[in-house]
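User: Can you write out an input/output pair for a complex, sequences first and structure second?

Assistant: Here is one pair. Inputs:
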Amino acid sequence: MSHRGVLPILFLVLFSSACIGENGEKKGEERIVINGAGASFPYPLIAKWAEEYKKVSQGRVIVNYQSIGSGGGIRQMIERSIDFGASDVPMSPEEYTKAKGTVLHIPEAIGAVVIIYNLPGIKGRLKLDGEAISKIYLGEIDRWDDPLLKKLNPEIDLPSERIVVVKRADSSGTTFIFTDYLSSVSERWSKEIGRGKNFPFTKEIGDRGVQAKGNEGVTAAVKQNPYSIGYVELTYAIQNKLVHALLMNREENFVEANLETISSAALNSIEELPEWNESWYGFSIVNAPGERSYPMSSFTYILLYQDLSYMPEEKAKALVDFLEWVLTEGQKYCEPLGYVPLPEEVVKRNLEAISKVRVSEDEGR
Amino acid sequence: MEMAKTKLIKDKIFTIYCFISLSFAILPLIHIVGTTLVRGIKAVSLEFFISLPKPPGEVGGGIANAIEGSIILAALTMSFSIPVGILTAIYLSEYQDNWFRNLVRLLSDTFAGTPSIVAGVFAYSLIVRKFGFSAIAGAFALSILAIPTIVRSSEEALKLVPIDVREAGLSLGAEKWKVITKIVIRAARPGIITGILLALARIMGETAPLLFTAFGNPEFVRSPFEPVSALPLVIYVYATSPYPDWHQKAWGAALILMLMVLAINLAVKYKLRR
Amino acid sequence: MRGDKLFLFLVSFFALLIVLLFVLFFHQLLCNSIPTWKRFGLSFVFGKSWNPLRNDFGALPFLYGTILTSTLSLLISVVLSLGIAVFLSEMAPPRLRDVLSSLIELIAAIPSVIIGLWGIFYVAPFVRDHLQYWLEPLSFIPLFSGRSLTGLSMLTAIIILTFMITPIISSIMKESLMMVPEDLKEALYSLGARRYEVMMKVCIPYAKIGILGGVILGYGRAVGETMAVTMVIGNSPVISASLLSPGYTMAAVIANEFTEATGDLHLSSLIAVAFILLVVSLSMNLIGRVVIWKWQKQSL
């Protein structure tokens, strides 16, 4: 019988290869795995931190971050199926009441949402204002050579092609920042659609609309489709070498999203920062004042429970240590990826918040 | 004569139609396998097999975590579903017919039509909500898909074993359970293994139930209670990403997955089926 | 004898486990979707809008997308499968038949995520750049009106689904056709009938119930297919008559939104969609199997 022994061999192979994987790493003290999930906005940054922190901790602390969208991060935080969440939107009061305890919002970096587009053969930088973007996303403007777009971009020869409008399919902080901005500049937008982690396309958009998952998906959709427009976190535009539009800010200057303009937006809003134990809902730095402020900027937050005594003490400590590292040493990885490091004032507040975290049952309060 | 001519023409048309239908199935198959081979091979290197993924946007790294994850998930799933599947099949084939037996068979057969994504929802609400994302939760969802295949093929294989074999054993004074485990199962082994391998091939390629159970993990795992990555999961995430390097890796992962699945299917076809 | 009792106990336990799992499965899906059924009742199934922002949920866009894509792909697939089944059972010499049958079975073995990968990089661009222009003469039919700017459309999903379910349907059809008794065919051939007549007049009528079973099983598969469809359908909850516009299916919306639904009603609505999907595909599977089983019994 030729099949005799097939099964035992199969299992031997399965298990032994599983073991190779596990032994491939340096054996040492107990390894700690911290699971996080949420926004795709800071994903490249958190993944970079995870890689660097593994080196710093000599392989002892593994941070597993999955990019599932801000909505997902908040939901999995509420369910406690992950150890920390990440979101670009503070939790809403409704979400807050569902959470199993006080949730801390720790801003970990500042980023910007940029408008990317795919106009084959067109050189020069597109210029847009809030009105134009909202009209494109409401479906009022359906062609690239619309008078309004022409007026904003007299030097560009805009094609007479229909605009493919790309938005996020998932519940996302990037969308929140985007709609937050549009709501603050366009009356029709604020009335008909409003702020939210997701919004439906209007009828006028019809078959020109495309929905894609994650910043990754939107970037891919814009790259793959001629005459499309989309909104993504700045990093994704940089990494993929996509040009992004210049936006008109509150003082009516066209600005590019970069280190300087994003910091300017953050610094001009610093006085409105909530205290560590207050609700962060409603805090926003879109359309911030300042001559050079980029209007679609935002903090991105790490979410964790103040009381971590539900997880093993070792893990809670490792999580706190990791966050401290992120806020201090880790900030140097922001810039190369297109994020803006936190201003000192924010770091100070964060460290205070983290010091309030309870890591074990028996810790005196 | 005129009629014979039209008949001949109709027959020709019919033949052409059959031939075209066949090519509509075969040509895309060749294209898929061909492109996966061509694009996949470009991604494959030693590094691809043994190293961990790099942060998004950085070039390099590999998918060792996903290969390990797939193997762990397969091993866990099989260790859940082989005992359940075979023992249920024994109950179905070796014991008296009654309403309960028919019910079990009916339900097991019905389970075979479960959409894989719904199995994931089930595993999420039952396991993940209480214990978090883990390889165990992923394997549970995959087991829902694997068990019906194993039950069905094992039952068929057991039924094919002639009654004489059992009677011979029993007449020698052996207890029934010994006859079943020592003699009947051995005789039915090729069929049972076929079923197991087919189930294995199916679950190795499943993505949907893993999205919110196994979840993914850029590192090697050390315990089944940690989230874990898998080849199909990596293919999905990489394919929908904007990074050309990740696209290439998606094809590489697809190549490896395809070879695994095809190898199992070919093994079934040529070694086990008589 | 004690050993026997113990063993019976053991195997019955596992059989019972299957029943328990089944009950638990339905229980979980039903219980967790109660808020949705309470709030919307049956109108959930026919609600046209799916808007998590306004807490307004209706499953119709997904039901529509699922039924439209799977029904159309089934129709195309039946036509193709019949040709394949006839070719394999009647025309091909045994050697060739074996080779071709295994190749077709191979299609069913390719993981759906790989087909989705292929769909994104080859089928969608093909639809965008070529197929829709070839279909332009048909654009007076609402089904083919409009234009897909991305190639991610219901049409693309249908192409992919057709490809995925054809092996299932054609192999059951082939087996049904091969069970037609030789003497029936011989009788007609001896009267000077051509092959297509024999097929149309004898084989297909004789095998029709087996064929029907295969068709129903294929439908169940198409309804539940997740990854390949999610990757190419464009994921847009609109109800559009045109196949060139993006759509959404039940399986795809669960895959996309399940981990992120923060509102209770959103989550429970997704589970309600899962419940509908489960009921639809399990009943398809059940009916298909019963039909095949009845037919096998009758033809023995």
